[in-house]
Amino acid sequence: MRSLFWRILGAFWLALGLMGALTYLLVRLFNQDDWILNHHPGLKDFATTWLSLHESGATEPALYYLHQQKRRYRIETQIFDANGLPLGKELSSRALAWEAKRDLQRLPWRRITQELSDSAGNSYLFVYRIANTELGAWQRNNGLRPLSALVIALLILSAMSLLLTLSITRPLQRLRNAVHDLGANTYQHDQLSQLAKRRDELGVLAADFNHMGQRLQGVIKSQRQLLRDVSHELRSPLARLQIALALAERGTAEQRADLWPRLHLECERLDGLIDEILTLARLDQVQAAQQLIHIDELLHKLRDDMNLLMPEQQIRILGAQHCTYNGWPDVLQRALDNLLRNALRFNPPAQPIEIKVEPHASGLSLTIRDHGPGVSSEWLSQLGNTFFRVPGQTQQGYGLGLAIAKRAIEQHGGYIAFSNHTEGGFVVTVELPYIG
Predict the structure, then answer these.
(1) Are the C-beta atoms of residues 295 and 434 closer than 8 Å to each other?
(2) What pLDDT does 393 receive?
(3) Rounded-to-integer distance, Cα 281 and Cα 403, Å
(4) Which helix (H) or strand (E) holds 426?
(5) pTM for the predicted model, two decimal places
(6) What are phi and psi of 423, to 5 degrees?
(7) Which of 25, 142, 251, 365 is a plausible cystine mate for 255, CB 3.0–4.6 Å?
(8) How open is the CA angle 160-161-164, to the nearest 5 degrees?
């Protein structure tokens, strides 16, 4: 993963490296002979001016112009013709005297040459010697080195800062928009899919936020659906209670005595329905830490509980020895309890219910088979939906048992499949992946 920390640190050091390299190259450019000849006030027009004076025969003005250059800019100049001979004995002697006087031979100096031709085609070589201290002072006084370094630094740092800022602020703006959409309940599941592909902290944050947004949207949707279903399911027992109460108010003492068991039964049904609804709602809450579950102990405990309620029923457990699973014990127990109760509701006492456990590399498979009438194939896909009951079944229920089991298994990252057995009966297959 390309860490954002290393990206920022790398951008910082890259900016420093580029700034140093370009500053060095620019300073080297400012120190090139051609650049100095074209910009130094004592050199840029000296050769052409002196050559024009020399061609016109003005020897004294040419010497004076040469000496002016020495006194004003401290530049020692020697001029040679095409044969390599210095121009004039007086000029060379004066040059040597001035050099001895200024003691330039003991100073670090910079040598610059320039070749120029006059109108007649004669070539002349100008050899300039300027002390490094003088050259450095001129560059500093004109602000060339500091100004160039400052300009380069500002340009590079501005460019790198702009790129780095955009690489951070744009994803943050998209996250901000996603938060706003989530608050307005208009969040789309693929809103941050592109951002989640980044291989840095922002990409991980976008992926986590996308997962959170999808889960919240699913929870909100399921809660709304649950509220609609609950309001519908609660109307029936409440309506029966209201009718029974109205009859009790109008009836005689004997009639009221006959209605009390009916009222008590409706209250129990209402209480059981509310308990199932609360259980379904709690499954959406964050669970505690996972624990090691011994599947054989859990199934044997459920079998013992069922034997107390229905001693005539038989439950056969296969393949659960030494089988363990990491999960939430209460949630998994409630899911298997509901599945087993559903099987016992339709299974004939003469044949046992079979619970088969098959561990495999990626998780755990459990199948619960009864020998009841099964379910019509047209209703299999709707099993597990809240408040769904198969039409035509006379068994009592609220349509929440399988929904609770399905939600509990999904809480573990697994799924439930419903099918009819080829030899008769109903089969529930539970797939539980290893989740650590």
Answers:
(1) no
(2) 66
(3) 11
(4) strand 426-433
(5) 0.48
(6) -100, 10
(7) 251
(8) 85
